[in-house]
């Protein structure tokens, strides 16, 4: 992390640094009340008393780093995302202070600063929107529905009700049952050795030349990596089994080289 | 709307009282007596006069102000009662067995009854499947090309409509269920656990890969 | 519904249709869609026209005909809420996380969980989404056509009904937020070249490097 904010005590004479420390201290009081680093940044930005689009990100970064530093001095446990934000802001701060490097790839420090200001403005806008939403007339508080929905007919029809949430809940209940695992989904990606044997056995009579093992994978199993892995493994295991029974020969020229197989006729055995 | 309401002595104009009676009668779960109305309206209101105005306003309309014993209520006009037959539906929550069966069909379709029973760990009653078919949420799919050619079940268009899905693929996956906090017990084993394959083969004749 | 013209039976006169819509809407606590109404009314009725007449008739009354998304309902006039204390149901106060998440879904819909987290800067806590779904204020929308096909969330008709909105377009301040570019999904600069940076730069004056 950049050192320039670590040398706090040396700058305590600087009135601005003192003000930032006081601001950091004020935040520390209810760090529990914050919803993440963006929330802290938004609170800090209010001390600048400017339009969020014209905010000084550099100053904001300094304030935030002072906040994290203060928390550290007080041996306060800050959640990991606060520290990630601190690291990122320290990086941004150093980038903002240095002249831009023309060789540097990627977004400029200004772009990053603009985006941060945008994020803060958007968060604040959503806060305000939430407040406006909650200030609307609520059904059941300001506006009321029919108190006595009418039942006229004697013939009652039962309507069964289930929501997608019910469906998802019962499915997840089934899927997390410890003593049992459903099998149907698993099987889709698994080519068993029995299946591989069944596939290879009739083919062996026709394989006179050395042929790459991969040519024996079942159709459609060579695209999806998980399926290919399963089919390769089981096909290979099946060839070992068949070689043991004297039905074929196996050959591999070098380590990790392609494995080739050749059928063995009854005569050459 | 005017400051009459704020006055302890001056009641709102009768037309305003009529609006009030209308709203109160509409929202009330049971008929209200004149005393009930006086208790709820601002001081000095004349509930019988407001009721009379309101009743007159609704004459010949689709709903009417009716007297129920010594109380008042708004009810639909008797000549329109034929429209109300659908209002009498009683909603009941689907049983756990039915919800689970439906969930399995939705997530695993096409699925046979034996597979549903295997996943649930209990047998599926005939009534459950019939109920889901009657609700037009599941229907018979193709027969499985395995010994016995068992029937399979799939979900219907009506199911998708009811649950607001555009396709069965829109059902959230297990990972998303967990992300939404719906699945917080032990994580399920990896999707492709090969150790199960032996046991599976004993129980099931593999089905040919079906086209999606 | 368009085959009305082919019907052997003539639809009732519009004034009668209005009465019918009035009765049906009055009797229902939940909003009814035009399709619901057509399913209940005699063949050949023009529910939108009847609704329009009815809505006009109830202007300024104690109850009103309100639009809720693609559905309609009768609700008490908001200015009379002070009479309704007895009907008020005590609602659980929503957490700040829940109200913010709700607002983000409403203003940004359809929105993915990752986008909600990007806007709030924190992960969406377990239970928040579930709570909003249980209130029937948000639901799953279509999957996004991006890698991983993440599920999206949208607000429900129940949400519109609860907050008295006739459509999501009526959300307070929506136009201003959109004009300010605050509803654009601007990816962080790391992801792609910032498309919006031109527009933003006009408004955003980069602060000069400060003295150290």
Automatic annotation (TrEMBL), chain A:
Recorded name of the encoding gene: scpA_2
Protein name as it appears in the record: Segregation and condensation protein A
InterPro entries for the chain: ScpA
Gene3D superfamilies: 6.10.250.2410
Taxonomic lineage: Bacteria, Pseudomonadati, Pseudomonadota, Alphaproteobacteria, Rhodobacterales
A Pfam entry, by short name: SMC_ScpA
Superkingdom in the source lineage: Bacteria
From TrEMBL, chains B, C:
GO BP annotations listed: cell division; chromosome separation
Coiled coil location: none
Keywords: Cell cycle, Cell division, Chromosome partition, Cytoplasm
Spans annotated as Disordered: 176-212
Domain of life, source organism: Bacteria
Entry-linked SUPFAM superfamilies: Winged helix' DNA-binding domain
InterPro entries: ScpB_csome_segregation, WH-like_DNA-bd_sf, WH_DNA-bd_sf
Protein's name according to its UniProt entry: Segregation and condensation protein B
Species assigned in the record: Jannaschia seosinensis
Gene: scpB
């Amino acid at each position: 992390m950049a050192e320039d904010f670590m040398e706090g005590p040396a700058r305590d004479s600087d009135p601005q640094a003192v003000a930032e420390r006081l601001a950091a201290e004020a935040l520390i009081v209810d760090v529990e009340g914050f919803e993440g680093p963006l929330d802290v940044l938004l609170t800090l930005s209010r001390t600048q008393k400017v339009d969020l689009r014209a905010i000084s990100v550099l100053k904001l970064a300094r304030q935030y780093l002072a906040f994290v530093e203060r928390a550290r001095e007080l041996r306060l446990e800050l959640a990991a995302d606060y520290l990630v934000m601190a690291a990122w802001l320290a990086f941004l701060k150093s980038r903002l202070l240095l002249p831009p490097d023309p060789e540097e790839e990627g977004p400029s420090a200004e772009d990053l600063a603009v985006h941060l200001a945008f994020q803060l403005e958007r968060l604040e806008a959503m806060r305000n929107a939430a407040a406006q939403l909650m200030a609307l007339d609520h059904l059941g508080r300001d506006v009321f529905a029919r108190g006595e929905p009418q039942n006229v007919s004697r013939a009652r029809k039962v309507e069964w009700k289930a929501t997608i949430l019910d469906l998802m809940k019962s499915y997840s209940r089934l899927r997390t049952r410890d003593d049992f695992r459903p099998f149907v989904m698993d099987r889709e990606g698994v080519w068993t050795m029995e299946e591989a044997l069944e596939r290879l056995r009739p083919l062996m009579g026709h394989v006179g030349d050395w042929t790459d093992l991969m040519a024996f994978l079942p159709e459609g199993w060579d695209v999806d990596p998980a399926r290919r892995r399963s089919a390769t493994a089981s096909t290979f295991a099946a060839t070992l089994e068949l070689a043991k029974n004297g039905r074929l020969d196996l050959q591999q020229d070098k380590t990790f080289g392609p494995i080739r197989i050749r059928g063995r006729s009854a005569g050459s055995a | 709307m005017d400051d009459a309401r704020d006055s302890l002595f001056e009641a709102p104009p009768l037309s305003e009282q009529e609006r009030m009676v209308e709203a109160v009668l509409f929202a009330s779960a049971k008929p209200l007596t004149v005393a009930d109305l006086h208790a709820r309206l601002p001081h000095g209101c004349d509930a019988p006069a407001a009721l009379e105005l309101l009743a007159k306003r609704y004459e010949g309309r689709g709903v009417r102000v009716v007297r129920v014993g010594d109380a008042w209520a708004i009810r639909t006009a008797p000549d329109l009662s034929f429209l109300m037959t659908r209002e009498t539906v009683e909603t009941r929550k689907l049983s756990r067995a039915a919800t689970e069966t439906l969930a399995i069909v939705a997530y695993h379709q096409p699925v046979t009854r034996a597979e549903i029973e295997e996943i649930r760990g209990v047998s599926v009653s005939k009534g459950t499947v019939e109920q889901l078919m009657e609700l037009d949420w599941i229907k018979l799919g193709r027969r499985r090309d395995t010994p016995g050619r068992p029937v399979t079940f799939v979900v219907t268009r009506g199911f998708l409509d009811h649950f607001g899905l555009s396709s069965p693929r829109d059902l959230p996956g297990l990972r998303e269920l967990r992300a939404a906090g719906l699945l917080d017990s032990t994580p399920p084993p990896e999707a492709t656990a090969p150790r199960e394959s032996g046991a599976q083969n004993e129980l099931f004749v593999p089905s040919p890969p079906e086209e999606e």
